[in-house]
Amino acid sequence: MIASHIGLNPETQQKMISGEIDVELVPQGTLVERIRAAGVGLGGILTPTGIGTLVEEGKQKITVDGKEYLLETPIHGDFALLAAYRADTSAIWSIPSPPTISTRPWLWRARPLSRNRTRSYPWV
Fold first, then answer.
1. Are the beta carbons of 12 and 6 closer than 8 angstroms?
2. Rounded-to-5 percentages of helix, strand, coil across the chain
């Protein structure tokens, strides 16, 4: 599991400590950018976050203009949970407010599992 925070859920913490699940904790901004990178077809992103810490172990370091960065690979989502107030039979959804830059990548690269609608409008 790749997450920016697993919360205070004791069950998740126990499974992580016991090795039952693998957890990669990633800063929120890096997580969003890795998802965005997959959405737009990039091979990864460069970030200075984690340089000089345990985070850099096993990651490729790249120097640009004398500054070191870690290469973070893109994350392709297995699924996306989206809420829409209106949807048609072609899976065109109306979302109350326009998706922000951080939510669009989920729409671009997630594999659809099912499309649940609260209300369907075939004429939209």
1. yes
2. 25, 20, 60
Q: How confident is the model at residue 120 (pLDDT cuts 50, 70, 90)?
A: very low
Alpha-carbon distance of 55 to 25, in angstroms, equals 10
Give yes or no: residues 82 and 114 share one domain.
yes
SS3 38: helix
Tell me, yes or no, whether 64 and 104 share the same domain: no
Please report, for residues 19, 78, 83, 96, 123, the alpha-carbon distance to residue 16 in angstroms, rounded to integers and kept in the order given.
Answer: 5, 20, 30, 36, 47
Last residue of some domain: 45, 72, 99? 72
Query: Which tens digits make up the pLDDT trace of 51-85?
Result: 999 889 999 999 999 999 999 999 887 766 666 66
State the total domains in the chain: 2
Block residue for tokens 């737009």:
40
Q: Which among 59, 75, 84 has a CA at the least distance from the CA of 108?
A: 75
Asked if residue 96 and residue 48 are part of one domain, the reply reads no
